[in-house]
Design goal:
Four copies of one chain form a homotetramer. By secondary structure, chain A is an alpha/beta fold. Chain A has eleven helices and 15 strands. In chain A, helix 8 crosses helix 11. The longest helix of chain A has 19 residues. Chains in contact: A-B, A-C, B-D, C-D. Chains C and D meet through strand 7, strand 8, strand 9, strand 10 and strand 12 of C and strand 7, strand 8, strand 9, strand 10 and strand 12 of D. Strand 14 of chain B pairs antiparallel with strand 14 of chain D.
């Protein structure tokens, strides 16, 4: 691997902001990457800061975000703070001339997501959103199978992402878990839903929706149902993709994360047969070998690569669309579950 | 068991109409019950008729339904024909003075369901709808756990009933598989949803919806999501019921069909703690012993019992509500997925 | 299918003896086969006899086995009685000139098994042993994969056949469940073990071993471990076959009964590398489509076919070897678990 | 937690030898424990040494074991080297006056295990063997259930410990994986088997047995079958314990590692009933909540505790018995699988 150096020949210098739940993983990943140094770690909580500082004494700990913004030698900032701070922190980073990596979702509103993207473009800085699942080997394997036409026409997708725990305090389960499914769906299908309907409930904390059932309608006719919940008897991350030719079950974390079912129903036209005929096909089931690479490392390496090459993140527009979907879903939830049109400047109720 | 005899002291005499997929099961069940005789078996298809006739030579086979209606010694008729014929055949049976058992759904429209109920009432005949799941030991065990308060407040229910195959020709998957979930939900929760939203698709046969995602909103605040499909990589009949105290997973046909999870999240009020506190509870998991009785037999015995005692079927009103839900779901599906109010004479769109 | 008729042109006439646990299955299978009639059903227990007689009124019920032996129109006898009666009943059937089907194991001793085979040969009658698993589609699929060389060299086989229940009164679990594994191993591997060791215990009924662990050593070097038990928390019928190229897991009754794992360890010789090298290979996992034919029907059709063609049962010698293995295993069990040589006239202790 | 200090008031000083597969885990665990310092890390391989040195710069890296022995300030040595070096390194440590922790098995022979124990006793030093499973919450939960009498009389135990990979170069699978099962069995049952029989095979590397089937006979009548293999289609660590009252399945790493089945067979004496009666009992299945503590940390804390209190390791005699069993199993394997008596000075063949 080539040495990644910033313009003046020194090692690329990165700061990490937010050391709560996910930040320490990003920090560990950055430390393991070659040819960069983590110059700062930053968190408002002294306790979180100290825990990371003990483990990585070479990074300067600080509770003051301005320290990062003001250091001219710092090349990039990686942000893993609560969602409602994403826009403010990322905008400040970009305005200070830093390449910026923000955990998903890119921003808490479509308008702010767009503003960040524009800011990066105007200042010619790299902006990337942490959508780890897009770098996960099973998700990539599914993408490849779809591209190869193995599934035929996709009819529908049914996904469950539920567990017990980790209630967020500032956002609903739609903003917390939804981006995982949204990013995968957008990536796999290469189209943006035209409408989203959402029902759900704030079972535990008043005002924070902790279970949601989403229904997405795509222009091609594909329907997707997504169940999101922080309240479930056991962890489940299962997505079924049903095509005219084959069906896939992707179950994250399972010993066989991708299973391809050579099953389907063949419809023969009534014009030929008088009455239509159905025949059921049930063939082999295949669990293809899936690489064991860690998606987080691939993702971070891509961010560093972007800084080196000057390319735009290939998933940045997708990151904006993810925010658009979350916003539309929230809007449907707020209005009692009616489908909401996606992709207009203002997301309108459909009915 | 006492002898069940009709008024004139002879054995109870029953005719079975419809010997396609489910009818032969009802026939076999009736044959095994004591103190009744299956006098007729009736189907339009000679092939179906002959298959059953060979097995049970004591019943008179006929392709003419009027033979049953006209025989004054026949006490009851059991109907397992396609959905669109339920009303016509059941109404004719009741008008001919026969006690009537109709497979679910009771009728293809709310109006017709209501008419059948009235007809039975006016003529003082027993009318019962075949909702086998209500007699299934796991469903009954779940009902008991709910009644005992084991779950605390129920927050939401998430159900999947999918398999590969058995596309119906006359009705959508909502009318075919939906009644199973509807009847269980109504039975467990003892309340009728105030609205239903449905999205779905006719993947295989044009005009016949073969996958549907339903969202039901109950007056108590409970939300239920129901996935129904004839297109799935593998058979799944799984219902998760999440309560404030415990959670249940009911999986029909599994070696442990009911599993009770002593898990949950406890919310402590911000008034006491400044900021609210959440604590996660994860205790034992119990698979209670479930009886092995066959629901079909219990159900048929109940029908025979009703004839003897003159009681009204305890699930008849529920059978009408099931039709009401299916109709509302179809209505939502037809109008693009907006929630439709349930329980009005005409099912209105909510938005 | 051609009509199977006995010499005088009439339908083939068969009698079934033993209507306890398995006999009714054989009876139902024979009834469903074309071109034969079940002339007699025979059992010592009036209760068992009546239960079958009600269902199949065309067969003459009798508690007297001689009725079958003495009827000159009866072509064949199917025996499903307790193991200790197999020899006596089968020998009598053969001596009376009847083609004979005996449930596994063929006889309770190697000597008697040999005598039956000789008797059939001398009298030119068909003798077949009911080894249903050999007709089971997954077992046949495994055989095909082995023959195609998919597994490479087979290293070892590990099998568990355990459940809760159905203690036999006259034989140990070795004679009851062992023949299933013995017949599959002999069929797949086409070689007879040279020694068997067995340990076990009579946990419940004094003197009746209800759990046994068998270790079979084959001439080719293959080792097989077989766990048999009537005492287990849950039913398990799982066989792992580990080869140099691929591995198979066969789990009877599972939704995917045969799974082929493209996994292994490659050993590279120290001569080339100084020290030996190992590399681990972990490829795709395949669940081939398995036919849904019922093994019992295939097996019975083969028996009827033998009578028609006059061929010798292709698994008759195997049936004798199964008895030989069971006898050797019992002998090892009795002497404290030392390996016992198989394949000598008298089975000698090895040590 | 109190401060653990050596006599002179300084922090307890520990050295770690062997940084291959398991050593780094012990090192990480020691680093996380309070009130001790890891003074040395030692390995013959510069590569292994450097990998750990980078992560923990405070420990002095060395390839020379004598550095540890010669440092009078070093209190204890933790050994995680290949099995054949255990005795030499541990004996040297004890002779140098260091408290000693040796990974399982304690030594490669019963004689050497005994010598280490004597050496520790004579010099009044703490000697402990790393038998991590004894500190694993599920194993402890099983022990508690047995002690409470939940299982009734234990009839037999059947265990599988198989995976694909990690062939050891110096020892067979019996010495590598066997100690896990041996230690659990000895701990649970509180008795030493009287004999062991083993069959197996060196499938991959000539002379290194990589699959073994062991049969252990306990004085109480309990029989245990243990399957050990480095060659398996998928990882499995499952132990079934069958008692007269209940049955347990312990599956390491499963979401529900301990499952208690209220199942069994009740035998009623022939004296009362004429013929004996069996009734099958099938009640609830319970997955008790299992703590999430890390066994490695509990184990290391216990070692440090022993140094402080001067107590003898409670599992030291068990560690010797584990070696005794492995030796007996190897001896049986070498002589063709005949049971070998355990517990004599020289392990004799039984037959």
């Amino acid at each position: 691997m080539e040495r990644f150096r910033s313009s003046d020949g020194s090692l690329l210098s990165v700061g990490v902001v937010g050391l709560g739940y996910w930040g320490p993983n990003l920090l560990r990943g950055l430390i393991e990457l070659p040819d960069l140094e983590v110059a700062y770690i930053c968190d408002r909580s002294e306790e979180c800061l100290n825990a990371s500082a003990r483990r990585y004494p070479s990074a300067t700990p600080t509770t003051c975000y301005a320290d990062l913004l003001d250091d001219p030698r710092l090349d990039a900032i990686v942000i893993a703070t609560p969602v409602f701070t994403h826009f403010e922190l990322a905008a400040a980073a970009l305005r200070a001339g830093k390449h910026t990596f923000v955990e998903k979702p890119l921003a808490p509103s479509l308008a702010e997501a767009g503003e960040l993207i524009e800011l990066a473009q105007v200042r010619d800085l790299r902006l990337m959103c942490g959508q780890t699942f897009l770098y996960s080997p099973p998700v990539m394997a599914v993408k490849r199978l779809i591209e190869l036409g193995e599934l035929g026409d996709i009819f529908f997708i049914s996904s469950s992402r539920v567990n017990l725990g980790l209630h967020q305090r500032d956002v609903s389960v739609i903003w917390d878990l939804g981006p995982h499914d949204f990013s995968m769906l957008l990536h796999w299908l290469d189209e943006v839903p035209e409408s989203v309907a959402a029902t759900g409930r704030d079972s535990i904390v008043p005002g924070i929706c902790d279970v949601a059932f989403l229904s997405l309608q795509f222009p091609s006719g594909i329907v997707a149902n997504v169940e999101l919940s922080w309240l479930a008897p056991s962890k489940l991350r299962r997505t079924a993709i049903v095509g005219s030719n084959k069906m896939i079950v992707y179950e994250d974390g399972a010993p066989e994360p991708v299973r391809v079912f050579d099953r389907g129903v063949v419809y023969r036209d009534p014009e030929t047969f008088g009455e239509y005929q159905l025949s059921y096909r049930s063939g082999d089931i295949l669990s293809p070998r899936i690489d064991a690479t860690e998606p987080l490392m691939t993702e971070l390496a891509e961010f560093i690569g972007l800084i080196r090459t000057g390319d735009t993140s290939r998933h940045l527009e997708l990151a904006r669309e993810v925010v658009m979907l979350a916003e539309a879903a929230e809007s449907s939830l707020a209005t009692g579950g009616a489908p909401v049109a996606v992709g207009s400047h203002e997301q309108r109720s459909l009915v």
